Known about the structure:
Elements: E1 5-7, E2 13-18, E3 25-30, H1 34-53, H2 56-72, H3 74-85, H4 89-114, E4 117-119, E5 128-136, E6 139-143, H5 151-162, E7 166-170, H6 176-190, E8 195-197, H7 202-209, E9 215-219, H8 222-233, E10 239-242, E11 247-251, H9 257-269, E12 279-285, H10 289-301, H11 320-334, E13 338-341, E14 355-358, H12 365-368, E15 375-381, H13 384-392, E16 396-397, E17 400-403, H14 408-414, E18 421-422, E19 439-440, E20 443-444, H15 449-454, E21 457-465, H16 480-494
Parallel strand pairs: 6-7, 6-9, 7-8, 9-10, 11-12, 11-17, 12-15, 14-15, 17-18
Antiparallel strand pairs: 1-2, 2-3, 4-5, 5-21, 10-20, 13-14, 16-19
The protein binds NADPH dihydro-nicotinamide-adenine-dinucleotide phosphate.
NADPH dihydro-nicotinamide-adenine-dinucleotide phosphate (NDP) is lined by residues 143-148, 152, 170, 172-174, 201-202, 205-206, 209, 219-221, 224, 227-228, 242-245, 276, 370, 398, 438.
Amino acid sequence: MTQELTRTDGPTTTFDSLDPVTGDVVDTHPVHGDDDVRAVVADARAEAEWWAALTWDERKDHLLAWKGVITRRIQQLAEQVHRETGKPHGDALLEAALAIDHLHWAATHAEKALRRRRMPSGLLMVNQAATLEYRPLGVVGVIGPWNYPVFTPMGSIAYALAAGNAVVFKPSEHTPGVGEWLAHTFREAVGRPVLQVVTGLGETGAALCRAGVDKVAFTGSTATGKRVMAACAETLTPVVIEAGGKDAVLVDEDADVEAAADATLWGACANAGQTCTGVERVYVHERVYDEFLAELTAKASGLRAHEGDDSPIGPITMPKQLDVIRSHVQDAVDRGGRAVVGGPDAVGDRFVQPTVLVDVPEDSLAVSEETFGPTVTVTRVRDMDEAVDRTNAGRYGLGSTVFSRARGVELAGRIRSGMTAVNGVITFAGIPSLPFGGVGDSGFGRIHGEDGLKEFTYAKAVARQRFKPVLALTTFARTAEDEQKLVQTLTLLHGRKGTLPKRPGRRARG
Ligand code: NDP
């Protein structure tokens, strides 16, 4: 739905969040401008000081209390997600469940990942005791998308909070109620607004970038990510960019073809294809191509999106996305591709039916650009080398999937993407210890796991002198004799001739 701004009686401008199935108003929210956002960030700074001064255990207990509230009210949260995005209630439950698990992991692993630890000081600096710890940045601004309005921003919010930061969250204009729900329940559980929400359209997100936060964690499209980065560059505010993707599935000749087809269909069509790590293209070994396509076609033909409450696929949340999906499918067909399921007519007013495209050129929109709909291209390849080359040819590098009995992990290692699932799909997102993020146009920085905790900190290194150095080098009292001793020590430590790596192709004689 297009958001319309309304100037109400008072000085506050508002906007409505809408039900994408019916177009009904779900709720009305304020549009926070520059001054409002700055005021919220200033409040958050005081909260950040209080929060950072707590012990690890105290912060953990607060976060686990919040987790308890979310878990006990998960049905209410899922209903809010369902109303604002249109996705099936069960899918909303699943995303909330995953977010709860991440919150638990972040809360219970922050101390181990970030606390002060002793580091080796090295032979040259043996008189020093070295320690390293990861300190919170202060106030983190989180800008989130609408497609997974709980799971996606919580990947930043939970980890930033667990690392000791306060958070100001700007949810998508399509899902402001979900953001407010998260902030209200946090306040209820913790008693202080360490997590706060500002609502509005894109301009409110831009205001958050300018409001003096210590880092911005952005999840959304690559184009907006560039704007966020440009705005943050003005103040040298660091950013994490979790942007779009064009994830591929690779199906090897020894794969469980039925499982690969099942995973492909779910990966492509769950959440109506509006998933950053959704499956958008498949490369199948020529020996199993026909079998795979037959399985996928049979399964996809039985899947339909409809307005009923039991629809397995919801509507396209943003109507303007329908034009993008239509243009990608039409371009594929115009350029010699065939729709074996769905096609241009599958793109309706609100719903898009599953669409499987074959014989689509690699430079067509459906293969090279993020479609963000329940569509997938299937391409026959000679071997897995070709599959890897084609997968890596794109500008995105978020997730990927390999189906292979013998070579799954080896092929995964050759794909240029932040995450790869082997013989499953998008499984990495549900494993809290694994970092999540991309390369190339999919962005940079990581949420989830230890990397995700460290993303919201700065490394603090301390070197403490334990006793006077044997060689006094950092003083103007240094003598030529000291320098001579340094050279002797260095020669002992680093001066030995190294062994060159063996030349490839030459076997060492045994
Ligand atoms: P957008 O880029 O349109 O918006 C993302 C967020 O940025 C929204 O909150 C939006 O506000 C806000 N925003 C818009 N303009 C600005 C601006 N100039 N400055 C600061 N913030 C701004 O993405 P979508 O919401 O449409 O989300 C879909 C995209 O997100 C897809 O490309 C998808 O692949 C990607 N995504 C990536 C994920 C990942 O982890 N890598 C996970 C989930 C989605 P408003 O909505 O009010 O305009």
